[in-house]
Every structure is written in structure tokens, then in C-alpha cells.
Amino acid sequence: MLINCAAYEGGTKLADLPVDQISDYLQRPGCFVWVALRDSTDVELTQMQLEFGLHDLAVEDARHGHQRPKIEEYGDIVFAVMHSVEFSPTDELVVGEVCVFVGPNFVLSVRNHSHQGFLGVRARAEREPHLLKHGSGFVFYALMDAVVDRYFPIIDALETDLEGVEEQIFQRGTARQNIERLYGLKQKIGVVKHAVTPLMDAASKLTSGRVPAVCAGNRDYFRDVYDHLTRMNASLDALRDTIGTAIQVNLSMVTIEESEVTKRLAAWAGIFAVATAFAGIWGMNFEHMPELKWAWGYPAAVGLIAATCGLLYHRFRRAGWL
Amino acid sequence: MLINCAAYEGGTKLADLPVDQISDYLQRPGCFVWVALRDSTDVELTQMQLEFGLHDLAVEDARHGHQRPKIEEYGDIVFAVMHSVEFSPTDELVVGEVCVFVGPNFVLSVRNHSHQGFLGVRARAEREPHLLKHGSGFVFYALMDAVVDRYFPIIDALETDLEGVEEQIFQRGTARQNIERLYGLKQKIGVVKHAVTPLMDAASKLTSGRVPAVCAGNRDYFRDVYDHLTRMNASLDALRDTIGTAIQVNLSMVTIEESEVTKRLAAWAGIFAVATAFAGIWGMNFEHMPELKWAWGYPAAVGLIAATCGLLYHRFRRAGWL
Amino acid sequence: MLINCAAYEGGTKLADLPVDQISDYLQRPGCFVWVALRDSTDVELTQMQLEFGLHDLAVEDARHGHQRPKIEEYGDIVFAVMHSVEFSPTDELVVGEVCVFVGPNFVLSVRNHSHQGFLGVRARAEREPHLLKHGSGFVFYALMDAVVDRYFPIIDALETDLEGVEEQIFQRGTARQNIERLYGLKQKIGVVKHAVTPLMDAASKLTSGRVPAVCAGNRDYFRDVYDHLTRMNASLDALRDTIGTAIQVNLSMVTIEESEVTKRLAAWAGIFAVATAFAGIWGMNFEHMPELKWAWGYPAAVGLIAATCGLLYHRFRRAGWL
Amino acid sequence: MLINCAAYEGGTKLADLPVDQISDYLQRPGCFVWVALRDSTDVELTQMQLEFGLHDLAVEDARHGHQRPKIEEYGDIVFAVMHSVEFSPTDELVVGEVCVFVGPNFVLSVRNHSHQGFLGVRARAEREPHLLKHGSGFVFYALMDAVVDRYFPIIDALETDLEGVEEQIFQRGTARQNIERLYGLKQKIGVVKHAVTPLMDAASKLTSGRVPAVCAGNRDYFRDVYDHLTRMNASLDALRDTIGTAIQVNLSMVTIEESEVTKRLAAWAGIFAVATAFAGIWGMNFEHMPELKWAWGYPAAVGLIAATCGLLYHRFRRAGWL
Amino acid sequence: MLINCAAYEGGTKLADLPVDQISDYLQRPGCFVWVALRDSTDVELTQMQLEFGLHDLAVEDARHGHQRPKIEEYGDIVFAVMHSVEFSPTDELVVGEVCVFVGPNFVLSVRNHSHQGFLGVRARAEREPHLLKHGSGFVFYALMDAVVDRYFPIIDALETDLEGVEEQIFQRGTARQNIERLYGLKQKIGVVKHAVTPLMDAASKLTSGRVPAVCAGNRDYFRDVYDHLTRMNASLDALRDTIGTAIQVNLSMVTIEESEVTKRLAAWAGIFAVATAFAGIWGMNFEHMPELKWAWGYPAAVGLIAATCGLLYHRFRRAGWL
């Protein structure tokens, strides 16, 4: 679906265009066309391919989706694939794809399976003509920056989630729940990392060394995006590392808890085993058991049993088993 | 076994050739010969070596098999070894080998221990003469692309398998089965990674830097293959990482389950130990045990025992042990 | 808040300046202005941006904070972000930010959320005019050195903490406490590493290769800072590795302890089970149990029970179970 | 001990030489001398050092042994250290050392603590004069190839061993044995890896970049050896990784098994505790226990006990505890 | 404390010098001065700084100690920091520092907290004038070689220690001791690795690429030292890896042992529970229990109990639980 199609010159919008007038504006020097598609159909993509002279392989990638984030050059056209990451209503992560084709005189963005649009990007760009006049490369930066900035709240949410687990990891009886949450978190981090890391690697090529011509004038801006991606990547790595440790710690806590239960079990088993053994002795049917005939035999026996159990209880207590 | 032998010029097939006419066509400028062998014999390989002037070491490798995937240059001839990976009827992974020799005017593919053929590749290439006229390098790309594309369903199957394990990893009593499946999965991933990673490393040399002459014109295409391999490699690494975590989580779940069982055991042991100890006390044979003579002694005793056990049960319940 | 603003020439202070005279001194050759802000407001930053011609993106970073440590060049101006790390009164780590803008004729330091100031740095620099006359690059070094030197006591404190854990890791009954402390330590190390490692990577670019012009004359000094960061980074890695092992060892100790308790439990359970079983036998109500009538039956029985239990005790003792 | 000493020219043997004639042949252009020593004495090494002008440090290394595999250049002489790895009769790995000095007109191999000789290498080389005429560099390749090829059966044996462990890792009661075997395997893999990895790193320098002059003409051959080493290295890494997982899995299996035993223990303990408690109740000595006087009291009691136990048994069975 | 101060020319000693004559000899072409300090005071270091024109930062490092091993250039002076590692009488590792300043015409070694001196190095150097005439660079090599060679016995001792642990790791009841020893070993390896790895990295810069002028003529010698360091580094990595596995294996052994104890406990508990339950049955006070009146009731009952227990014992034995 076509969202938007407009021509720009010297930082200001010339006109909204119908698709069939694109080629007229492409000729005009100093002018560039900015087209936005969403959940594009085959027909639309083919039309765009013809208008802008896009490479077969790049269009294939945009059509099929399921690409890793990447930035490739086909001649003087830059083709970028980025992942959009959003929370679904049920708190699952949904991954969409944003493909951007950038030529000297055009930008084409194709967004699939993603709820978040780029109208804000366009509006802001149009309000800042001194920046927009840097041309298609700047628009590319603005789109990339928008995609990347939307990762921050996701990563923050994951960090908050992890802190939630950390708060209860040293509490008894939460192990099962913790491990499920940690595993779920680890999966989500994997999804975000899949979006961030390859894009970071790709973005680094826009900041130094041989930078594609359309991006060359905006190197500082791409370095800023690259910097954000580096930061996110470090955060994700730190998260992942912490989760690894937390899983280990959780296992340790379970084992510690089990060992405490074992000690208690041992202690109580010991105390009752003593009582039962004593009672068993005086329950034997020998004829000549003089204490059985004593008037105070019974209370003495019960007292002895109670005393022994009490002593054991006391010692177990002191040893920290009870 | 010879599968196919044909000469091409300007993107279209000239003729199917008997093997002994190969050398005639090799002279012809702008023409290349495409030969496909399957489970090749020594005689066939030696014949091909003579026809195309292949290097001893490369032919040795094709003959003996058991090579790592690689792409090597011998003079102006490129020699590639790739692994084919297929599921056997019993769901095991079967690894075959595809060797490709590419010279300026010929392509020779040798496929061993592999059920999947390349007739489809040839058919499609012949339907697209504008691509096929890029020459032997394009055929090399088409073969490589075919081999690599067949890894995708394998990796998908492994991912589905892992999801199956993940669904039951937090369920009680599945630990033994999970760990077996995870171990099996890890082994299979190792097999696929063995096919993918070295080929990825080798393919990267066809996309940038000093690219072999026969591949130079198809750099964008090889980058596409390289890109697929990078994506697969990342998927396999993610799978491997997830399996590692899943094994750890499975161990944690076993320990948690055991700790729950230990608590239950401790609780019930405690309850019955109390009952037995009480009964033991009143089973002692002292003469002077006044309560034994009371009319309501017995029901009172049983009641006391039941009440104590009930109290314990209640407390264990509240503590989450039962 | 403006802390300080002064102009220097040939290593000595010319004058403390009001902010609106900065531009006068910037013109003066061989002179540089050194401004220090703390918890800067938007107004102050905008003023400084105008005075010194700072890049939008750099000022954005200084304003928003939450940057990774980094050193960037915008034209001939170097922009550095560093983390200050301090212990809060409750022994938590507090991270602040120190941003430094260095131009050929000025240094601007902005310090946010940090209690530690740089007055000492300025005082020492003014006492050493032979060094200060190296210009703004040397001031940059001095600030960086001050920030980095303050990491050392933090790392020392963490090392001391870890040694405290190590001292009790092989003692019984400390496992729960150890694991909490190790987890806390690991988190803190992460915080410090976040400050150190990216700064180390950035600092390496000031010591070799294409060094920014303002730093070029102080290469040996920056190498010294880089060296400190390398050392810290190695210490932190070693700490982290040790913590990983300590967590593992702690788990092992818990398991060993549990296994010892299990053995003891097994041993005592065995001893009492034997006593109870014997007593149960002689508590049976068969009519023809001749030993029950023997005069010495009872003491003999008790003696036999005691002897058996003693024997068991002795053997368990020898086996190391008790 | 001198094994062999001969001069070659144009690919064919000129003569077997006594050691003191070596220098005569070294002068002769197009001729090279090939000397093989075994468990060399100091005297022999000193003699060779004088004949061939070897560097002090290299001769030191050959004399003392215990070197890592490496390939070094001393002027135009290449000095290589390789490890030979063999199984001892008791299935231990025995590491020997093969040092090779290669100059433009000589090859000197020194083999220590190794049972396997290189007579086969010499015989094959002499049968292939078209290859041997490549000179001393080709002999170096042939020796290296022979050493490296002998690693394959070792690695195969280790893989077979691991498969043996894998077959029983999911069987009950084999854990202790598995862990011992896995640990032993890991040690052996370390030994082989010690031989393979540094040699691989060293060999890579003979295939590309600035290749030593004596090896330059045989680059394709050294690439073949390098390729073998890469493959072995990958196999060893895969083995090591699998062993790591297998150790983890083995631990999981022990824990799973223990948890099954704990469940069984809990179940049977429960069943008998119930029986004992019931019997204890009716073993109490209260005077007014009417059921004790019933004619069918005893069978009813036994029946009740048996029924309760049966019910418990049934439920434990269904829960998978028994 | 000044240990030694002498001037050398053409490989032979000219004279032992008082410190104040150093400058005379520094002028003399072809001559170099070799000074050795031990536990140097501030005064001595300042004096040396003046004599040899050392850089402030390097002298600072030598004064404060606690540096990582490193090799730095200050102009044409090379400054090296190395760690000496020794066993204390109580078998702890003691780390000292050896700083070496090497200029074209002098060598200054400063050794702190280290018992081992370099008199042997000087003596050997003076006995080999053909080597010593390589100048100050060779002396630097000789000192470095001496420091590095002293790591070998330390590493050997650690390896022997680990073998000691390995011998008993599969024996029952040694787990606690093993884990303590493994943890201690790991710490010690960390200390040695701290000395070896950074020095290795630094030494690699003396063997290839842009080598400092004073070392350039002794490149082969420094490569030899580098080689030793590489070997040590590999040994330490292997040790560390083995310790990691050994800790894991030790944990497995504890778990296996515990699982065996649990089985035994379960088996004996089962046997006695059966005996007690039977005895309890016949200890009930029902009036109509005909077997109680049988003449052979008691022996039959005891026989039945014994038989049942025997049967259970037999079955547990067969199952490997006892």
C-alpha cells in the first residue's frame, strides 16, 4: 500500500506525486523523491523497481522478507534491511521488516508486518529544511534513527523485567517461576539482538572507511546511530550475561534450599526415630522388665523420651538444621 | 555416472555432448561446457582431469571426499567443495558432497552420496538466457545457491524440533526425554554448522577483495549466497545457544522437581512419624498408665493423633510443601 | 552551574572570565579557555555551544546523558564522554557522567550526577606550568587521568569484597550468603566494566595511528591513561572470571554439604531402624516366644540392640559417614 | 642415530653419502642433500649445525625438545617443529617431536621419541621424480604431510571412543564410568590439539602472503596440508564441544536418576509408614478398644491396611513415582 | 640499592663504575653502561633519571610498581615492565617487578620485591663476548630471557599439582579437598597468566613489524623469548581449561556419590520398613489372631520377616543399589 510519495528540493517539499510522475522528478537536478510503502504487493514493488532501477536481488529480498538486517550497495544505490521490534498486546515480541532503497535522487521505504509508521519522521524532516537539504542520505539517516530509537523502550522493558526477577531470586519458593521468566527473557533478548547486532555491524561501514556516496555527507549522523546501536548491543550483552548468571544462581538457590530441607528432614526424622525406638523398647513383651512395674515408670519413660527429643531438638537448632 | 554434458554459448544451449567432444568446444571462444557427474568413478574423474586440466590435489579431494567445505583456486580454475545435507527416512542427517570445478570455459559438478540433483538448476538456467550468458561463473553461483537453499528447510526442521522441546521443558516428568532430544538436536546442529560455516567463510572471498576471475562478474550474486549463509550461521548459533540454555534449564527443572519431592517426602514422613511415635507411647507395657483404663481413652488417643497429624498437614500445606 | 571559567597562556592563568568574555580570549593566539560546568542546564549548554561552535549531536549527548563512554571527533573538536563511578553511602555504585569538549583553544568539561569535582586537577595543573603549556590537549589528559584514577579504589574495594567471600566459601553453612554477595559483586563489576572497557577502546585511538590534532602532542600521556585502563580491564576480567568460578565452587560446596548430610541421615536412620525393628520383633504377641520368659531376656535384648547399633555406628564412623 | 643421508639432483638420487661428504654435494648447483636423524645425540646435532650452518637457537630447540609446533625462518633456512602423536600399547597418547631444517640445498629431519619413521616418505618421493625435482621444499612438504596424515587415525579413534560413551550416556547406572571416560577423552583431545592447532597456524604462513623462498614453489601443496590441519582442528573443536555437552548431559542424567530414586524412596516410605502407623494404633494397650474383640477384627484390620497400601501403590504408580 | 654498575665495550667489561662516572662513559661511542638496582629508593631513581634522561611517566611506573607487564617506547629508549613470580616458603606465589630501561648506550634494570637476582645473567653475558657485543639490546634480551625462564618451574609445579588432584578426582570422599585445591590452583594460574600473557603480547612487537631500534639487531633472540611465552601461555590456557572441566567433573562425582548413597539409603530403609511393618502387624492386640497361638508361630514369623528382607536385599543387590 502506498503511504506517501513526494518530491523535495533544497530541503522543502515540492509536491505530493502520483506514482507515475516519479520519473519526471528524478531527472530534475537537486531534487529527490521520497516514497513510503507499507505491506507492499508484488505489483507495487515491480513498479518501484522499474521507476528507480533497483537490482533484482534487492527487490527479491524486500519481497520475501526474513532477511537479517544488512546494508548493501548495488552500484550507487544503497539497500538496507532493518527489523522493527514491537510488543504485541500479549507481551510477545513481534518482528517486522523495514527495507530502504536509497539512491542519489530517491528514497524508497518499504515496511512490512510493522505497526509503527514513519509519518513522524517525515513531518519532523519537513520542519527542519536545513537538515533535509542534505538530500536522500539524510532521509536514510532519519529513517534508520527512527527504527533504532524504537529499540530503546523494548530493551528498557526487558531490563525492568530482569530486575523483577532479580528481586525475588533470593526468596524461597520462587525458583520455578524465576527460571521460566529467565528463559523467556533470554529468548526475547535473542530476538532484539538479532535486530541490533547485524545492523550495528552494517552501520559501522557508514561511518568510516569507504562510505557509500549517498551517505558520505552525513557521516556524523550515521556515527550517532552507530553509537546508539553499540550501546544497545552492550546492554543486550550485559543482559544476556546477567541472565546466564541468574540461571546459575537460581539453580544454586534451589540446591541450597533443598539442602536446608534435607537437613530439617534429617533432624525431625532423627527426633521421632529416637522416640519410636524408646517406645518400642518398652513395648516389648519380656516378662521381667522391672521398670514396667514401677509406679512412676510411665511418666519417667515419657519424660525421658521427651527430654531426649528436647536435647536433640536443641542441638539441631544450634547447628542451624532446624 | 555421467548425468549431463552440454555446451552453452551466449546463454543458450548449443548441444548435448558426448564426453569425447568436450575438448572441441573448449577451444571455441565465448562458449562453455557444463558437465554433471554423480557418484563418480575413478575412471570418470581421471578423464575429466585430462579434459579440463584439473590439478592433482583437487581431483584427489573430489575422489576421497570427507573434505571440509572450501573454495580454492588452482591457477584460473576454482575448486569448490560443498556439503549437501538431507534427512534420511529415519530422520537422521545424511551428509553428501558436491564438488564443483569452474574454469573460464567449463563447469564440472561432481555429486556424491546425495539424493538431490541439479537438473532443476540446469532447467532454470536454460530458461533465463540473459543470466546464463554471464558464463561459467553464473552456473557456479546457481549450483551454490541450490546447495545452500536446501539447508533452509533442514534448519527450519531443527528449529521446529527445538520449539517442541521448549513447549514441554517446564512440564514435570519430561526431563529425561527433553535431555535426549536436546542432545540429539545439538549433534544435528553440529552437522549442519559443519556444512554452513566453512562455506560461509569461503564464500566471503567471492564477494570482496581479490575475487577469482571467473566469479568477478557475478559478485552481487555471490554476496547474496554469502548473505544466506551468514543468516543460517546466525540461526545455527542462536539455536546452539538456546540448546545450551535449555539443557541448563532442564537441569534446573529436575533439581526443582526433586526439591519439591523431597519436601513432600519430608512432610509425609513427619506426619506419619508423629502418629507412629504416639501409638508407640501407648503401646508401651507399663502397668501404671492410667489413661489406658479410661473408657474414652482410645477414641481420645486416636483423636489426638488425628488432630496432631491434621495440624501438621495444615501447616505443611500452608508452607507449600504439600 | 558554572564552576569555573579561566583563560591560560603559556602555562599560566591569565584571568578568571565571565562567560561573555570567552570569545575575546578565543581569538588570542597561544591562549586557551578552560570552562567547567556541573549539572548543566539547557541554557548553559546552548550558550557554550554558541561560544565554542559545538556540534548539535555532541551537545545532544551531553544534554541527555546515558551515553556509553566514547571519544569522538567533530571536525577539529574532540568530544569525550566518561563515566564517574562512586560508592553511595549505602555502598551502592552511583554512575555519573563527565563530558569533555576539547578544541585547539578551549576545554569545556560538563559533569553530571557526580560528587567528585575537578578543582584538584585545575589546581595541580596551575602548579605545573611546564606541563600546562602543552595546551588544551594536556588539560584533556589531566581530566581523563583524574576520572580514571578514581576507578582504582572502586576496583580495589571490589577485590577486597571478593576476598571476603573467598575466605568463607569453603566454610559450611555460608552458601546462601556467599551466592548473594557474589551476585551483587558481579553486578557491580558490570557497572565498572561498562565505564572502563569502552573508554579503553576509545583511548587506544589517542595513542597510535591517526591521533586527533589537539591530542597529538601528548601521546605519551594518553598512552599512560590507556595503560591504566588496560590494567583495570584485565583486573575486572580476572574478577569476573573468579566470580564465575566461585559461583560454581559454591554450588559444589552446597552439593558436597548436602551429600554429607544425606550420609549422616542415612547412617542414623539405619541405626534407629535396626533398633525399632528389633524392638518390634519382641513386641509381637505370639504366645510361644521362649526368650520373653527368660530372666535375663530383657537386658540381653536391650544389650543386643545396643551392641548392634554400636557396631553400625562404628562402621559408619569408619566409612566417614558420621 | 643417522638413519639416512643421500644427495638428489633433478628428482633422482645421486648417492648415499657418508656424513663427511655432505659439504661436497652442497656446493653442486641443482643438487640437494636429505639427511634423517633419529633420537639424535649432541654430537650429531653439532656436526649437522656445522655442515649446514644452522642457527644456535634452532639447534637448541631441536636438542631440548618440548617445543610447541612452529615454523620459523632463520635467514633462508626454515626450521619446523612438529609433534608426532601415537597410541602406546596401553592406549595412552605418546608425543614425540619431529624437527625439520630446510635450506635451499638440504633437508635435515630429526625425529625424537617417535616410533614412526619416514622411510616410506623417502621411498615414495624417490618413485615420483617429477615431484621430487621441486627440491628441498617438496621434501619438506612430504614430511609434513606424513606427520599430519598420521593424526587422522588418532582423531578417528577418539571420535569412535566418544561415540561409545554417547551410546550409553542415556542408560542408567553408567554415569561414573562415562564421566571418567569423558575426562580421559578430553585430556587426549588436548594433547592432539596441542599438536594440530599451532602447526595449523604456522602452516597458514606457507600458503599465502610472504612465503619463505624454499617453500614458494610448493604453495598448493602446503595449502593442502593446511587444509587437512584446518579440518582436524575443526573436528577436535567439535569433539571438545560435544564432550563439554556430554559432561553436562551426564550430570543431568545422574540428577534425573537420583530424582527418580528419591520419588521411589518417598513412595515406598509412604506406603510402609501408613502400614506401621495403623499397626501401631491397634498395638496400643487401651482397655476399651472394642474392635480388638471382634471375631473379624484382625482380618479386617489387615485387610484395611493392605487396601490402603494398595491404594497408595496404585496412585504412586499412576503418578509415575513407582 | 645499587647492585652493580659497569661499562662494556665490544663485548668486554671496561670497568666497574661509581654512579657519578656514568655520564663519562655514555659519551664514549661503542660503549654501553649496565646498571642494576634492587628495591630502589626514590633518590636512586631520580639520580638514574637524570643520568639517562628517562621519561617522567616511565620513572613513575618504576617507582609505584603494580604495573601490568608491558614494553613501551619513549623516544629511542625502551621501557619494559616484567613480573617475577616465585613460590614463598608457604607455597604461595609472590609477585615482584622487574623494570628495564634500555637506551642505545645503557641498560638499567630495577628489581623490586623479588628474591631472584640477575648476577648469573651478567656473569654468563661476560663469558660470551661475541654475543655481548650486540650491545644493550642483547643485554635486554638476556634479562628478559632470565625472567621468562623462571616461569617454567612455576608452571611445572602447577601442572604437577593438577595431576595430583586428577589422580584422586574419581575416588570417593575427596570432593571437598579437590575443590579447594582446584580453586587454589585456578587463582595461582591467574597470577602467572597475569605475568605471561601481557608480556607475550608486548614481546611480539619486538619480533616483527616496526621493532624498536635498540632491539632490531636481536630479533631472532626476542622471537625465541616470544616463543617461550607463547608456549607458556598455551600451557596456562590448557591448565585453566582442565581445571574448569575438573571442577565440573568433581561436581558430577559428588552428585553421583550422593545418588549412590540415596539408593543405599532407600534400599536399607525399605528392608527395615518391611520388617517393622510385619512386626507391627503381629504386635497388634486383636483377640482373634490365630497364628499367635501356634507353637511355631514365632519362628515362622521371624523366618518370614527374615526371608522377605533377604529377598529384598537380594533384589537391591542385583539392581546395584547395595
Give a written overview of the molecule.
Five copies of one chain form a homopentamer. Chain A has 322 residues and is of the alpha+beta class. Among the domains of chain A are: 1-134, Beta Polymerase, domain 2 (2-Layer Sandwich), CATH 3.30.460.20; 258-319, Magnesium transport protein CorA, transmembrane region (Methane Monooxygenase Hydroxylase, Chain G, domain 1, Up-down Bundle), CATH 1.20.58.340. Chain A has a seven-stranded mixed beta sheet, sandwiched between helices. In chain A, a hairpin with a 5-residue loop joins β5 and β6 (93-103). In chain A, α6 (136-149) runs parallel beside α10 (219-282), α7 (151-168) packs parallel to α10 (219-282) and α10 runs antiparallel to α11. Chain A has helices spanning 22-27, 42-52, 56-64, 119-127, 129-132, 136-149, 151-168, 175-204, 213-216, 219-282, 297-318, and strands at residues 2-9, 12-16, 31-38, 70-74, 77-87, 93-103, 106-112.
Side by side, the strands of the main sheet of chain A go 2-1-3-7-6-5-4
- Categorize the overall geometry of chain A: rod-shaped
**Uncertain stretches of chain A:** none
Oligomer designation: homopentamer
What count of helical segments of chain A does DSSP give?
Answer: 11
Main beta-sheet strand count, sense and barrel state of chain A: 7 strands, mixed
Question: At the fourth CATH level, what is the homologous superfamily of one domain in chain A?
Answer: CorA soluble domain-like
- Helix % of chain A is 55-70%
Estimated radius of gyration of chain A: 35 Å
Class per helix and strand makeup of chain A: alpha+beta
- In the CATH hierarchy, what is the architecture of one domain in chain A at level 2? 2-Layer Sandwich
In what range is the share of β-strand residues of chain A?
15-25%
CATH fold label of one domain in chain A: Beta Polymerase, domain 2
